Description:
Elements: H1 31-57, H2 59-69, H3 78-93, H4 96-99, H5 104-112, H6 117-133, H7 143-157
Amino acid sequence: xxxxxxxxxxxxxxxxxxxxxxxxxxxxxxxxxxxxxxxxxxxxxxxxxxxxxxxxxxxxxxxxxxxxxxxxxxxxxxxxxxxxxxxxxxxxxxxxxxxxxxxxxxxxxxxxxxxxxxxxxxxxxxxxxxxxxxxxxxxxxxxxxxxxxxxxxxxxxxxxxxxxxxxxxxxxxxxxx
Length: 177
């Protein structure tokens, strides 16, 4: 064998350049991101639904506060107007049978039991004063501010979520039984 002198080539010259992979795409998303997005949408829809429901539920309360703010102490029948505002508001949230029959001390007791203890002590005197002013031919205008404040505080802080007692629950199966 005869040795031929062939120029030896560099083996590195035969290699191709390094292939740089393409960047990682963000689309299509992985299933976890779809789940997280769906969960956020559900939470957002639930929050909107809750806000609308709460807003509608408290509409009678907001209207009563507006009505109460339109009553002034110079009106000769302000105790009757303030008490009627309280009654209308309570009738919006509680059964007619529970509210319509209440007057005087039983009405005050009902109102006081619908607020927390700290608020109850704050409003009880004003509500009692309101009940005593109802049956006076010329109500005392100095009492108006205390009665107004007590009523306004009750409208803002009362727990108006009705939960019937076991005696009041419908056991006959019909809506009006």
